[in-house]
C-alpha cells in the first residue's frame, strides 16, 4: 500500500432509530481513537443531502482516502454512499458500511449499553476492513442490439413485439409447432369472458409479420456461451442447427397444467371427473349436455405443505437438475406447495360460463380458501348472484367421490361451517389444478446458469425489487416460468422484461460488477479445481495457469475458498480483508498490525 | 484457562462472543429482517458479510476460534436457494471437516454451527442467536480466550 490509509468514519443517528438506543457520540469518539481513522463525525441522517454533503466535505478537508458509514444496511444504502464517495473523487469501492441499525439498535432496544459496545466493535471491524480496501473498476462491455426470446407464449410474444417495435432484432423460438402457448388452448378468459383467440391471434399475426422478428417454431436451445452483451447461441430444430449472437435473453417458456395422478379424486377412473383445462375443451365444444349439478374442487395438487429443506439436505452434491428431479418426484405424489393464484378465478369463470349455457345447472365450488383480489371481487359477486354455491370444506378430510347405482357421481365432503358431512350427487366433478414448472426448465436453467427455487420455478434476482431479472446479467424472465400468473400478469411481465433488456441494448454498453475473482499467476499451479467447481465457467486453464474471465465471474468467491494454493484472490472480499474484521473484533489490541498487513 | 476456571466463569454469568459469517442474499438479509421486525436477541453476535457461504474458507472459522471466539456461526441460503447455484453445498461439504478439526483440537464441536436462513426468516435468525448464545453460556468461555482476548 503506497499511501497510508486515512479513514473517515460517519456515525448515523438515523433519527432515534440508532441514536435512541446506541450512544452515538460515544461511538464517534471511540472511532477517532482507532488506527488509521483520520476523522470521525456523527450526523442525524447520514443519507440526507446534508449528511452526504458532509461526507464529501470531510473527504476534501481531511484528505480522506477511505470512508466508513455506520448506519443501516449495505443492502439498501451502499449504492447511495458509494455514489457520494465517487462524487468526492474517491473510487466507490473505497467505502465500507457498518450495520449498527438493522443488526444492532433495532434488535437490542432494551440493552442500550451493550448495544453501544457492539456498535463500537462493528465500527472497529469496518474500519479495519476499510484500511485494506482497494480501488476497483467495473469492466465495460458492448451490447449487441438483438435479443433471444425463448418461448412464444403470450409473455414471450409480448416481450418480442415490444423489443422489435423499438427497433431491436428479435429471435423468437418456440418448442411447439405453433406459437401461442397455453393461451391458445384456453377457451375464455376472466374477467372479460373474451375468447382467448381474441387476445392471442392478433399477437401471433403481429409476430409472424414483423420485420424485426424471426420466429422459429419446433426450435429449442442447444448451447449458450458468452455473457451479457454478446451471448453465442446455438439453436436446434428438425431442419438443423443455427448459430446466432444476441445481446440479451428473455426466458419465457411457461409452465404446465398439473395433471392429477390416476385415482386422485377418482381422476382417470370415472370419465366425468375432469380438470378445469379439460372443462375448457368441453365448454368450447358445448358438449356439457344438461347437467343437474357440477361440483368443482379447489386446490387439487396445490398448497400441499411446504417442501422441507431437511428433505433436500440429503444430497449435498446436488446440482439444479438433481434438485428438480427430487422435487418433481415428490410433487407427483403430493402436489405442489404453493397457491397457483389463478385457479379460484378460473373456477369462477367456468361456473359463470356454465350458468350461461345451462342456467338451471346447480354449481357447487368446494374450497378451503378462496382468493379473489382487486377487481376480481366483482366477478366473484357475479357468480354469487348467479347462485353458484361456494362451500368451504374441511381441508384435512379431502372430499370423497363415488359412483352411484344410476351411474352418477357422488361427492361427500365435510362442510367447515356445520362440521357435518354433506353429499352432492353430481353429473360432472371438475378438479382445479395448479400451474407447475416444466421439467425441461432444468435444461434451460443449467445452460443459462440461473438458479431454480425450491418450488421448481426459475428464481428471480430479487422477489420484490428485481422481479424480472435473473442473477445473470442480460438474462430476464417473463411469464409463468417464474411462477403462476394469469394472462394479464404474463403480459405485464413480458413488457417488463423487454423494458429491462431494452435498457441494456439501448445503452449499447453495460458495466458489470467489479466484485470478481482473479488469479495470482505466480502462485497458481494450474490444478484446475477452480475450473471444475465454478458454476459459471469463468476460470479456464491456459498454459498451465488458471485465468478467470471477469465478465463471466459472478463474484461468489467459491473458487477463492477452494483454491489449494490460495492463488485466487477475491476482489473486495479478500482473505486479508475478511480476516482483518475477525482480528479487529477478537484481538483489538493488535489492530495496527492488521492495517499494515 | 482450565476446566474448573471455565466453570467459574459460567457461574459468574460470562457473556460469550459469537462471530457469524452470513451470505449477502439470504442470511444477512434475514438478520436485517429480524431488525426491521424488531425481534430482539442477545447482543453477543457480530456479523461479517460475505457474498456467499461458498466464499468462506475453513481457515476463517478456525482463525476466529483460535483468536478466542466462543462460537462461530456460518449461515447461508437454504439448499436449492443459493444465489450462485451451489455455494451453500460447497460450504456444507467443507463444514464436515471444520467440525472434525474443531473436535480434534479438543474444542466442543457445538461451538461451530452451519444453518440455513432465508431472507424471510428474521424470526428464525433471532431464535437461533438466542439459542446459540444460551448454549455458549453453558459451555463456558472458549479455552483459547485468555491467551488472546482477556476481556
Written account of the structure:
The complex is a heterodimer of chains A (597) and B (151). Chain A has 597 residues and is of the alpha/beta class. Helices cover 34% and strands 22% of the residues of chain A. Chain A has 19 helices and 30 strands. In chain A, the strands form 10 sheets. Chain A has a 5-stranded parallel β-sheet. In chain A, strands 16-23-17-18-19 form a 5-stranded parallel β-sheet. In chain A, helix 3 (74-87) links the parallel strand 3 (66-71) and strand 4. In chain A, helix 6 packs parallel to helix 15 (487-507). By secondary structure, chain B is of the alpha/beta class. Chain B has a 4-stranded parallel β-sheet, with helices on both faces.
Quickly list its features.
heterodimer, A: 597 residues, alpha/beta, five-stranded parallel sheet, globular, B: 151 residues, four-stranded parallel sheet, 46% helix
> What is the share of helical residues of chain B?
40-55%
Query: What's the alpha carbon Rg of chain B, rounded to whole Å?
Result: 15 Å
Which spans of chain A have pLDDT < 50 for at least 5 consecutive residues? 307-318, 593-597
String of helices and strands of chain B: HEHEHEHEHH
Strand line-up in the sheet with most strands of chain A: 10-7-6-14-25
Oligomer classification: heterodimer
The total count of strands of chain A amounts to 30
- Sheet-strand content of chain A, in percent, reads 15-25%
Number of helices of chain A: 19
Structural class given helices, strands, pairing of chain B? alpha/beta
Beta strand count of chain B: 4
Sheet with the most strands of chain A? Answer: 5 strands, parallel
Let me know the average pLDDT of chain A.
Answer: 91
Give the count of helical stretches of chain B. Answer: 6
Structural class of the secondary elements of chain A? alpha/beta
The greatest interface between two protein chains, and residues involved on each side, is: A-B, 59 and 53 residues
Distance between the termini of chain B: 13 Å
Beta-strand portion of chain B reads 15-25%
In order across it, which strands form the biggest sheet of chain B? Answer: 2-1-3-4
N/C terminus separation of chain A: 9 Å
Low-pLDDT stretches of chain B are 147-151
Amino acid at each position: 500500500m503506497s499511501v497510508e490509509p486515512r479513514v473517515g468514519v460517519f456515525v448515523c443517528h438515523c433519527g432515534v432509530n440508532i441514536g435512541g438506543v446506541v450512544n452515538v457520540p460515544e461511538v464517534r469518539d471511540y472511532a477517532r481513537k482507532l488506527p488509521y481513522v483520520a476523522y470521525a463525525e456523527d450526523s442525524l441522517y447520514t443519507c440526507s443531502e446534508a449528511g452526504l454533503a458532509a461526507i464529501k466535505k470531510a473527504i476534501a478537508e481531511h484528505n480522506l482516502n477511505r470512508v466508513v458509514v455506520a448506519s443501516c444496511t449495505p443492502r439498501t444504502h451502499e449504492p447511495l454512499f458509494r455514489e457520494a464517495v465517487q462524487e468526492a473523487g474517491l473510487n466507490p469501492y473505497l467505502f465500507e458500511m457498518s450495520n449498527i441499525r438493522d443488526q444492532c439498535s433495532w434488535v437490542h432496544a432494551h440493552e442500550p449499553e451493550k448495544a453501544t459496545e457492539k456498535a463500537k466493535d462493528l465500527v472497529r471491524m469496518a474500519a479495519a476492513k476499510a484500511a485494506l480496501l482497494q480501488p476497483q473498476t467495473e469492466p465495460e462491455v458492448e451490447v449487441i442490439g438483438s435479443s433471444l426470446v425463448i418461448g412464444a407464449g403470450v409473455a414471450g410474444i409480448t416481450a418480442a413485439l415490444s423489443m422489435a417495435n423499438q427497433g431491436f432484432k428479435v429471435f423468437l423460438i418456440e418448442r411447439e409447432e405453433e406459437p401461442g402457448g397455453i393461451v391458445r388452448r384456453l377457451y375464455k378468459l376472466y374477467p372479460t369472458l373474451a375468447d382467448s383467440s381474441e387476445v392471442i391471434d392478433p399477437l401471433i399475426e403481429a409476430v409472424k409479420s414483423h420485420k424485426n422478428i424471426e420466429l422459429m417454431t419446433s426450435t429449442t436451445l442447444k448451447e449458450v456461451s458468452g455473457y451479457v452483451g454478446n451471448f453465442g447461441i446455438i439453436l436446434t430444430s428438425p431442419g438443423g442447427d443455427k448459430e446466432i449472437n444476441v445481446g440479451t435473453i428473455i426466458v419465457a417458456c411457461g409452465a404446465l397444467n398439473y395433471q392429477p395422478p390416476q385415482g386422485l379424486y377418482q381422476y382417470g377412473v370415472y370419465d366425468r371427473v375432469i380438470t378445469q383445462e379439460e372443462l375448457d375443451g368441453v365448454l368450447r365444444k358445448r358438449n356439457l349436455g344438461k347437467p343437474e349439478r357440477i361440483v368443482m374442487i379447489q386446490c387439487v395438487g396445490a398448497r400441499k405443505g411446504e417442501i422441507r429443506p431437511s428433505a433436500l439436505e440429503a444430497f449435498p452434491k446436488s446440482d439444479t437438475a438433481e434438485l428438480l428431479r427430487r422435487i418433481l418426484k415428490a410433487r407427483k405424489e403430493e402436489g405442489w406447495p404453493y397457491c397457483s393464484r389463478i385457479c379460484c378465478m378460473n373456477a369462477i369463470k367456468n361456473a359463470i360460463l356454465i350458468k350461461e349455457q345451462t342456467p338451471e345447472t346447480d354449481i357447487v365450488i368446494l374450497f378451503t380458501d378462496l382468493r379473489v383480489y382487486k377487481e376480481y371481487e366483482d366477478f366473484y359477486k357475479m357468480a354469487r348472484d348467479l347462485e353458484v354455491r361456494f362451500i368451504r370444506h374441511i381441508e384435512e378430510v379431502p372430499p370423497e367421490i363415488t359412483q352411484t347405482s344410476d351411474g352418477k357421481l357422488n361427492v361427500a365432503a365435510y362442510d367447515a361451517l356445520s362440521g357435518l358431512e354433506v353429499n352432492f350427487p353430481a353429473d360432472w366433478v371438475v378438479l382445479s389444478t395448479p400451474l407447475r414448472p416444466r421439467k425441461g426448465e432444468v435444461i434451460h436453467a443449467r445452460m443459462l446458469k440461473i438458479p431454480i427455487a425450491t418450488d421448481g420455478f426459475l428464481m428471480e434476482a430479487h422477489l420484490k425489487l428485481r422481479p424480472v431479472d435473473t442473477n445473470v446479467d442480460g438474462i430476464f424472465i417473463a411469464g409463468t416460468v417464474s411462477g403462476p400468473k394469469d394472462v394479464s400478469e404474463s403480459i405485464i411481465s413480458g413488457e417488463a422484461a423487454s423494458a429491462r433488456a431494452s435498457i441494456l441494448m439501448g445503452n449499447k454498453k453495460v458495466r458489470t460488477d467489479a466484485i470478481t475473482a482473479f488469479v495470482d499467476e505466480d502462485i497458481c499451479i494450474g490444478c484446475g479445481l477452480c475450473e471444475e467447481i465454478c458454476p459459471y465457467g469463468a476460470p479456464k486453464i491456459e498454459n498451465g495457469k488458471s485465468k478467470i474471465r471477469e465478465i463471466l465471474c459472478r463474484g461468489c468467491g467459491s473458487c477463492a475458498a477452494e483454491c489449494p494454493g490460495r492463488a485466487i484472490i477475491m476482489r473486495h472480499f479478500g482473505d486479508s480483508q475478511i480476516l482483518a474484521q475477525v482480528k479487529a473484533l477478537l484481538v483489538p489490541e493488535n489492530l495496527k498490525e492488521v492495517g499494515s498487513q | 484457562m482450565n476446566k474448573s476456571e471455565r466453570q467459574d466463569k459460567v457461574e459468574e454469568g460470562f457473556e460469550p462472543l459469537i462471530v457469524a459469517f452470513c451470505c449477502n442474499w439470504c442470511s444477512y438479509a434475514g438478520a436485517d429482517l429480524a431488525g426491521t421486525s424488531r425481534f430482539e436477541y442477545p447482543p453477543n453476535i457480530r456479523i461479517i458479510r460475505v457474498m456467499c457461504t461458498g466464499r468462506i474458507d475453513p481457515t476463517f472459522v478456525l482463525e476466529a476460534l483460535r483468536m478466542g471466539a466462543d462460537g462461530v456461526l456460518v449461515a447461508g441460503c437454504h439448499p436449492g436457494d443459493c444465489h450462485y447455484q451451489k455455494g451453500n453445498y460447497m460450504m456444507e461439504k467443507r463444514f464436515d471437516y471444520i467440525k472434525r478439526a474443531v473436535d480434534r483440537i479438543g474444542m466442543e464441536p457445538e461451538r461451530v454451527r452451519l444453518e440455513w436462513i432465508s431472507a424471510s426468516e428474521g424470526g428464525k435468525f433471532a431464535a437461533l442467536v438466542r439459542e446459540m448464545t444460551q448454549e455458549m453460556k453453558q459451555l463456558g468461555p472458549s479455552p483459547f480466550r485468555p491467551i488472546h482476548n482477556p476481556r
